[in-house]
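Moderator note: this is an archived Q&A kept for reference. The question asked for a predicted structure of one protein chain; the sequence and the answer are reproduced below.
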Amino acid sequence: MRHIVVKQAMPSANQRALIEAQPQLASLQTDRYENILIVGATSTLAVAFAHILAKRKVRLFLAARNEEEAQRIGKDLAIRYGCPCTAGLFVAEDYASHKAFFEHVRKTLGAVDGVFVAVGELGDQALNQSNFERAKSVIESNYTGMVSLLTYVGEYCESRKQGYLIAVGSVAGDRGRQSNYVYGSAKAALATYLQGMRHRLSRNGVHVMTVKAGFIDTKMTYGLIKGPLVADTASVAKAIVAALERKRLVVYVPWFWQFIMFIIRAIPEWLFVKTKI
C-alpha cells in the first residue's frame, strides 16, 4: 500500500433549551486523542474536519478511494500546520482489504485514538430504483462497506477501552421518501448499526457519535440543492467537533434539521404518502 507522510444562524433561546435537554455525558477531552484516522478524506466535509484537527497538531491518516488526492490534501495540511499526515487507499466495496488496511493504519500511527468516517454515494434515485446494480453500489458505499471497516475498528477500540468513532449519516435516513429512499435506507441502516455499536462500546469507554447531516454544500450535492437550508462545510465541521467535545451521542447538522425531521417523522403515514417531499 502506497502512503506518503506528509454562519449558520444561531438557535433561539427555546430551541437551544430543547437541544440542551438531550441526554449528554461529561465533556470529552479531545486533546488526549493524538492519532486520528479520517476515512473518505477527500470529501469536502472531511477536509474541513481535518483542518480543525491539523491546527491542533494531531497526527492524521487520510484514507480515500482517490489516494492521489488524499496525498495532496495531506501535504497541504502538513505545510500549513506542521502536523504529521499520512495518506492511503481505502475502497469501501473492497471488503477483503479492510482488515489489512486497518492494520496498516495502526502500525503507521502507532495507535488509533479516533476515527472519523465520511463516506457516501448519493446516486440517482431514478436509476437506483430501477437498476439493482446501481442500488447495490449505493448500499455498499454507504452501509455494507462501513460495517466491514467498523467491525475491525470496534474490536480495536473495545480492546483498548478508549477512543472515539464519528460516522456521518444523513437526515435522509430518518424517513423513507420517494426522492431518495435507496440512499436513505442505507443511511438508516448505518444509524441503527451505530446505535447498537454505541450501546455495546459505551461501557468500555468508547464514544460513538452519529452525525445526521442535512443539506451541506459538498461535491456530492453540488448543483442539486440551493437556498437557506444549505450549510457550508466549515461551520458543519466546527459543529461536529463541538458536539464531540460535549460527548453528544447523536447530532443533527446544521442544528435546525433536528426540528425539521421531528415534524417530518410526526406526519401520519396515510397523510405522508400524499406528499411529494
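Archived answer notes: The beta strands are 4-5, 35-39, 59-64, 85-89, 114-117, 164-170, 207-213, 250-253.
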